[in-house]
Automatic annotation (TrEMBL):
InterPro entries: HATPase_C_sf, HATPase_dom, His_kinase_dom, Sig_transdc_His_kin_SpoOB, SPOB_a. It holds the Pfam family SPOB_a. PANTHER family: TWO-COMPONENT SENSOR HISTIDINE KINASE. GO terms for molecular function: identical protein binding; phosphorelay sensor kinase activity. Keywords: Kinase, Membrane, Phosphoprotein, Transferase, Transmembrane, Transmembrane helix, Two-component regulatory system. The chain crosses the membrane at residues 15-32, 44-60, 66-84, 89-113, 133-150, 170-191, 197-217. Coiled coil: none annotated. Residues 251-448 form the Histidine kinase domain. This is GHKL domain-containing protein.
Length: 458
């Protein structure tokens, strides 16, 4: 049983000293894990931890016997700081036990000195709030001095703390289950102290309110991380396209050297009609370069890079790549990352349909057209490969369905994921297929009223 709630000694012991102890736990933990920047970068969350630790410590003291409440406080601090610092739960528990062990050693070392000066026994320390307060002030003062000293020291570089968790939501879920379990277990202890039920309920509400706030803040961090990851993916795709372009340029540089050597040899030999033959040779080279390398202006730089790579791929496989932008892609309401994935996947399917076709296609063509119709933005990607059978048409967008061999790396998720990305952006996809043509028609909402014309065919 604890003394009166209105006792000033009790208030200082259970509230003020708890806040100081929470700060010691927080700073020591972040020092060991080499993440002290969290205190500066996440001041609000750090403050929430101090408040939640104080409330939880008081609640545990109110609801559980001394031995149990110490274990529960260790678990609470371990889970809280694991969530804040993004550290594995087991590693967090070991760290908190280590810090707690050091704090106990400090208390045991200071008690003989305190007892000699104040002539106090251990029993008095446990039962008299005033004596407990004086000893707490001594202990926390020494601990804060030690904390100040280590603040001037560089944190240890422990490799286990450098590994970021990819599923931090699990810690938040475990933390919530822990609090729920605490609530259930504490009921039997509070039932025998009905005079404290209002205080108990107030503490419960405050603790779960803080838990909800931490969850909301963690959710906002996750959303920002997702946005950063999307930007990274766009850059990654763009870099891949640039690498492909560099490889094309390197190959063409090698070809240019061969062409120059050939022209030089023709000039040196100086046979009849040499000038006309060199002109014809250069004309053929010019046409070849024009067909193999084409630039685009789609209104989206990332798509432009993608189309350059696809056009070169088409040239290498003797496929006509017909691109016609009646309206720029900056008019369509769709996420950039999703747009790249959608167009890239469907173009890849079109190339595979023609290249892997068992039928002979006299004039293989892949087309990408965009236009506005009935206030909707249409992206049409078509090819003149084999007709898709009706039974396949009904299943082609299903999860796991694939027309490829079982040992293929593709497991039938490509078009399913494409459909999901289109729907996520409030669009829809329609597939038409007959003997002459297979067309994927993607329909999105517009974000503007401008209507520009651009056409590029080759």
């Amino acid at each position: 049983m604890i003394g009166s709630i209105t006792s000033p000694y009790l208030f200082v012991n259970e509230v003020i000293m708890a806040i100081i102890e929470a700060f010691i736990f927080l700073y020591s933990y972040l020092f060991i894990s080499n993440k002290r920047e969290i205190i500066k970068n996440k001041k609000f969350i750090s403050t929430l931890f101090l408040i939640s630790f104080t409330l939880f410590s008081f609640w545990a003291t109110l609801s559980f016997p001394a031995g149990y409440h110490t274990i529960l406080i260790i678990l609470f601090v371990s889970l809280s700081l694991a969530l804040i610092a993004n550290v594995k739960v087991f590693l967090s528990i070991v760290t908190i036990i280590f810090i707690g062990f050091l704090m106990i050693i400090i208390e045991l070392m200071l008690f003989p000195f305190f007892s000699m000066i104040t002539n106090t026994t251990m029993e008095q320390l446990q039962n008299i709030q005033e004596v407990k307060l004086h000893f707490s002030i001594l202990v926390k003062s020494i601990e804060l001095i030690l904390l100040f000293i280590i603040s001037k020291i560089k944190s240890p570089n422990i490799k286990y703390f450098s590994k970021e968790l990819s599923h931090q939501v699990i810690i938040y879920w475990v933390f919530g289950m822990f609090l729920m379990g605490m609530l259930i277990l504490s009921i039997q202890f509070v039932i025998y102290q009905p005079e404290k039920i209002i205080l108990y309920e107030t503490l419960i509400i405050l603790i779960f309110l803080i838990y909800a706030i931490i969850g909301y803040l963690d959710y906002k961090v996750k959303i920002n991380l997702i946005k950063i990851e999307k930007k990274y993916n766009i850059q990654y795709d763009y870099i891949k396209n640039l690498e492909s372009l560099i490889n094309i340029i390197r190959r063409e540089k090698h070809d240019f050297s061969n062409h120059i050597n050939t022209i030089y040899a023709m000039s040196t030999i100086n046979k009849p009609n040499t000038v006309e033959r060199i002109k014809e040779y250069l004309k053929n080279i010019t046409n070849e370069i024009k067909n193999s390398y084409t630039t685009f202006n789609s209104g989206n730089d990332y798509i432009d890079g993608l189309l350059v790579v696809k056009s070169n791929h088409a040239y290498e496989n003797n496929i006509i790549f017909d691109v016609n932008f009646e309206s720029m892609l900056d008019k369509v309401r769709v996420d950039n990352v999703d747009l790249i994935s959608i167009i890239s996947n469907i173009l890849d399917n079109a190339f595979e349909a023609i290249i892997l076709s068992k039928e002979t296609i006299e004039r293989p063509i892949i087309s990408l057209w965009t236009y506005i119709e009935e206030e909707k933005y249409i992206i049409s990607i078509s090819n003149n490969g084999p007709k898709i059978e009706d039974e396949i048409l009904e299943k082609i967008f299903q999860n796991g369905f694939s027309t490829k061999e079982r040992n293929s790396d593709d497991h039938g998720y490509g078009l399913y994921i494409v459909k999901k990305m289109i729907e996520k952006n409030d669009g829809k996809i329609i597939l038409y297929s007959n003997k002459e043509e297979t067309e994927f028609q993607i329909i999105f909402n517009l974000i503007g009223d401008k209507y520009e014309l651009y056409s590029e065919s080759f």
